[in-house]
Amino acid sequence: MSLAPYASHASLSRGRRHAEAPAPTRDAFQRDRDRIVHSTAFRRLVYKTQVFLNHEGDLFRTRLTHSLEVAQLGRSVARALRLNEDLVEAIALAHDLGHTPFGHAGQDALDACMQDHGGFEHNLQSLRVVDELEHRYPRYDGLNLSFETREGILKHCSRANAERLDAAEPGGVARRFIDRTQPSLEAQLCNLADEIAYNAHDIDDGVRSGLIDIERLGELGLFERYRRETLAEFPALRGRRVLYEAIRRMLSAQVYDVIDATSAAIRFAAPSDADAARKAGPLVLFSDTMRRESSELKRFLLRNLYRHPRVTATTDQAKDVVRELFDAYLADAAQMPERHGERTDRHRAVADYIAGMTDRFAIREYERLTGRRWIE
């Protein structure tokens, strides 16, 4: 399939921070994807929380399975829009590499610990992972990914951090947060595929956990429409098969909506190339109707799942673990591996070490350092 003119073409990449000879059988974005898949940080995602902690059940999503689902959705849409599937996949697989253990609870706790030392942003941490913290190659730190992949990984960034990054890399991946332009269409697509994926799988995991009653989902126009459609076609269907089929149809509807709405936006903006698309404003989007329904779904999940007492009890405990680990390593750097313990930027070294932990390793370290047991 030929790429659209406004897609990101690997042959036109802005390159890597450290020059390398091209690979004989792979283009720049394919090579990025492969480096991400083979990284240590990618393997750790299998034991990092999405909503439910890893030990709470074998079938709940983790950061790894979430990233795979984002990549699958992103590639499907990219193919229809003639965008670069390999770049979409690379960004999707790497977008959560910097996430802490215990999901957003861990991130919030670590940000609070780092409040007087630059804070903590998981998107910025993902960029730090691929730029600095992976130690695999003899000539440089990090994975030395292409500009376009790094640009997509940095989904959000505060103004202060953007200015700091731009000072170190003028005109680099943080510049768009200062100029108020957009990333590539592939990066925009990953942002939306991320939202579509977690909305759908959090419904599934919420019902599986027993925290969301499937009957309550009737409050959601988006979900209820496809549940009714499913039962109209399969009136004898019962239980989880109804849920699975309704979610499948809802996902398909959102994918087709993005394709149609984005195609119309691109036709109107008529970008001549990838850089023109960056300057045209957000082009990968939902229709107005689907955006309203997706927002309703997010509010439903916030009320009924993310703020459920059982979830908040666990996340409160997780925040305590992160805070106590931070204080313990800050007091005694020798408790960390040498590559972290010998650094002079002590607070950031501790944050990097904790952010790289899996849920179960963080719990083991907490129990080792405090002598207290994690209460399940």
TrEMBL record:
Keywords for the protein's UniProt record, in alphabetical order: Hydrolase
Database matches in Gene3D superfamilies: Hypothetical protein af1432
SUPFAM superfamilies: HD-domain/PDEase-like
Family annotation (SMART domains): HDc
The family this protein is said to belong to: Belongs to the dGTPase family. Type 2 subfamily.
NCBIfam families xrefs: dGTP_triPase, PRK01286.1-1
UniProt-recorded name of the protein: Deoxyguanosinetriphosphate triphosphohydrolase-like protein
Upper taxonomic lineage: Bacteria, Pseudomonadati, Pseudomonadota, Betaproteobacteria, Burkholderiales
